[in-house]
Amino acid sequence: MDLEKQPPQPVVPAGAGAGAAPATDTLRASDADRDRFADILREALAEGRLDAEEHAERIEAVYTAKTMGELQPLVRDLPAAREAPERPLPAGVPGPRGAAENLVAVFSSSVRKGRWRVSRRTNAFAIFGSVEIDLTRALFEQRHTVINATSIFGSVEVRVPENITLRGNGNGVFGSFEVRTLESVEPDAPVVTIHGYSVFGTVEARPRRGRRVADLQDRMRKYFLG
Q1: How far are the Cα atoms of 55, 65, 81, 97, 181 from residue 111, in angstroms, in the given order?
Q2: DSSP characters for 8-33?
Q3: Within 13 Å, how many C-alpha atoms sit on residue 202's CB side?
Q4: I need a labelling partner for 20 at 20 to 30 A (CA). Which of 13, 63, 116, 135 fits?
Q5: SS3 call for 67
Q6: Taking residues 121-145, what's their average pLDDT?
Q7: What is the DSSP letter of 73?
Q8: What is the 3-state secondary structure (H, E, C) of 129-183?
Q9: Is 162:213 a contact under the CB 8 Å cutoff?
Q10: What is the pTM of this model?
Q11: How far is CA 58 from CA 53, 77, 178, in A?
């Protein structure tokens, strides 16, 4: 047989055979991806599809997941998982700056206070435990800060200075979600928004009397003008 007359065989890329993981499974998960999956689990808990223990286990897994392949199985048995997933941002389009900070208390407590740099997004989870976030002496390096608070048989407590803007959006299921809103008179004041819910627990955010961001205008001016 004349080997020179045989057509060339197609080259199969490594990992493309049977059993190879889809490309999306190895894609690194973003903070927005984790938040989206956490929202699906929150809806499932509210609808009674998950009990509190199942929800707690999956929520913890969501915020420790590194890839989309680790996130997908956590919602695969839920109706919302059948919806079309969000498309990733196109190349060159910047997402939220800075990594999210996770504060988790499972049968324990977690405290963040003192002089510290606030992340653009903070995820707080209290499951039979307590999380305390004190922003009264914190350094705000961005205008908007979002805190996603989840409390299941636990508590999440947030304290802010009196001269910033504080907003909230959430609910309680046999629990309480209470945000004492503020609107700062300073046009460049930091804005802290609390999102979340509580199940047999509490989420509370309010200003601490006498605590103010003293160098607010200078700090924000340096941030925006460089």
Answers
A1: 23, 23, 34, 23, 22
A2: PPPPPPTT-STTPPPGGGGSBPPHHH
A3: 9
A4: 63
A5: strand
A6: 91
A7: G
A8: CEEEEECCCCEECCCEEEEEEEEECCEEEEEECCCCEEEEEEEEECCEEEECCEC
A9: no
A10: 0.60
A11: 9, 12, 25
Burial class (CB in 10 A: 0-12, 13-18, 19+), 69: middle
Q: Which residues pair with 206 in a beta bridge?
A: 159
Kindly state the helix (H) or strand (E) to which residue 218 belongs, with its residue range: helix 216-225
Q: How many residues does the chain have?
A: 226
Distances (CA, A) of 65 to 16, 98, 156, 217: 24, 17, 23, 38
Q: Three-class SS of residue 195?
A: strand
- What is the Cα 34 distance to its own chain's centre? 6
Tell me whether residue 222 is exposed, middle or buried, using C-beta atoms within 10 angstroms of its C-beta: 0 to 12, 13 to 18, 19 or more.
Answer: exposed
- Give the span between the Cα atoms of 167 and 81, in whole angstroms: 30
User: Residue 82: what pLDDT?
Assistant: 60
**Exposure b/e, 49-65, CB count within 10 A at least 16 = b:** ebebeebbebbeebbeb
Confidence at 18, pLDDT banded by 50, 70, 90: very low
CB atoms near residue 120 (< 10 Å): 17
